[in-house]
Amino acid sequence: MPKVWIADKMSERAVEVFKLRGIEVDYKPGLSLEEQIAIAGDYDGIAVRSSTTLKGELLDAAERVKVIGRAGIGVDNIDVETCSRRGAVVMNTPFGNTITTAELAIAHLLAASRQISLANASTKAGKWEKSRFMGMELTGKRAGVIGAGNIGAIVCDRLKGLHMRVFVYDPFISNERADAMGVTKVDSVEELAEQVDVLTIHVPLLDATRNLIDANILARMRPGSILVNCARGGIVDEKALFEAVKSGHIRAAALDVYEKEPSRENPLFELENVNCTPHIGASTGEAQENVAVQIAEQMADFLLLGTVSNAVNMPSLSEEEYRLLAPYIQLSSRLGQFVGQAMRPGYSQVTVHFEGHVSGLNRAPMINAALQGLLSQSMEEVNAVNAHMLAKERGIEVCEVSREKSDHFNNLIRVDVTGDEGCRTVSGTVFDGIRPRLVSVDTCEIEMVPAGRMLFIENRDKPGVVAAIGAMLAKADINIADFRLGRNPDKESAIALVTVDSEPGDDVLQELGELPNITTVRYIGLAEL
Q: Which superfamily, per CATH, for 98-276?
């Protein structure tokens, strides 16, 4: 019988779920590190929240653990890399806190628009300052949402319920998805800031989103607008926000998260029109129960049935299966990476085709690898396990087509991506079972090792194009390592894949794009094989 240790405080419903499924469970939160190390080796699964840190000595002691469940989203307290190396699955519950966090953002918005916090304090102090608290009506106003994933999508729905016009910046949703949500998609944070009266943030903290809301964005916001951040600290430049609110340019701000937590001292606390809460986005009884039940069910399913839900790392493959699939997984990933750099985000559909021998293999890891390669060009938190889920969240339809025979190769993988820029297709094969090759882009046959630095160039099929490209790169002191050409069947257009020794700057790409008969220039960087 599998045995699970619940190491942190959580709803006792989790204990009930394990027992009902026939799993032995010990509810032992609050132990010292020494006590935890002493018992960790007795369990097949460990369920935690944020108090227990499963790293170092404690993780080393958990020798027989097969699954670690985090009742919540963040897994910073778990050494995921070591768990992956040891074959232990790490799961979280990305959906358990969505509604409660979205509701907090709406609550903060309403409170800020009507100065509820200040009015409450004034009234309780025995004052009656009715004329002081002039609010802002939300009906008919423009609301901006950064990030339209799980939480952001719910916030959009609630904002529409307040009869606000909703604008969204999320490069991972297509125009089709935005239309289905009833929102207007914009192309940049700058554009969003300039158009809306209220701005609310619902993206993770990544290198790309750190200080996303800086002095420049705040200055672009309409005078008298409101900013809400219930996502992650560090996305908003707090010093810049302090100045923007203090000057009166920003009417009010509401924060549940901070650059440093616990945040007991912060200049923003001094401003009466900045509402602050102590990271309580998930702090409702319903949410706490939801994540406890969900993680217990997920862990039980894995221990009893072998199924995996919401894993944040790659589940193990047998050594034999991995050896067989590795070249095809690598090819699928490179095809996804290629399209992800040749085509800007805003995808609506991804179809992976398998032809020939590869159609009879385990195709799921290859599909996940293609999705990971595609999305990883603009999204840092994606991995081969969660790529499918992240695609679904953003309204990207994922399809699979397979047939036993291929017209030209023993095996062929083709990735078709449809989005705001139209459709891109890239195909590849594996020679001799070990050598991945790219063999076509769109309707052009062109063979290339999918590795290294390369330029993807589309052009009208006219004389002088190749010479002009070579001259421009020579002028920029960029050496050409390989130059492959492909002509479309219509003989009106062609493509070039140019492998270069060094990455060209934006100025070089711009100059190439301005050459006669050049229609598209994209830089594509792929790791060496």
A: NAD(P)-binding Rossmann-like Domain (3.40.50.720)
**Residue-range domain boundaries for the chain:** 3-96+286-305, 98-276, 317-433, 443-529
Indicate if 232 belongs to the active site.
Answer: yes
- Catalytic site residue from 86, 158, 279, 357: 279
Phi-psi domain of 115 (left: phi exceeds 0; alpha: psi -120 through 50; beta: other): left
Q: Is residue 318 scored above 70 in pLDDT?
A: no
CATH architecture of 317-433: 2-Layer Sandwich (3.30)
Alpha-carbon torsion (441, 442, 446, 447), positive or negative: positive
Q: What integer pLDDT is reported at residue 382 of this predicted model?
A: 79
Is 108 known to be catalytic? Answer: no
Angstrom distance (rounded) from CA 208 to CA 177: 23
List Cβ neighbours of 377 (8 Å cut-off, separation of 6 or more). Answer: 337, 340, 341, 345
Catalytic residue among 190, 261, 492, 503: 261
CATH code: domain 3-96+286-305 is: 3.40.50.720
Q: Name the band, by pLDDT with cuts 50, 70 and 90, for residue 82.
A: confident
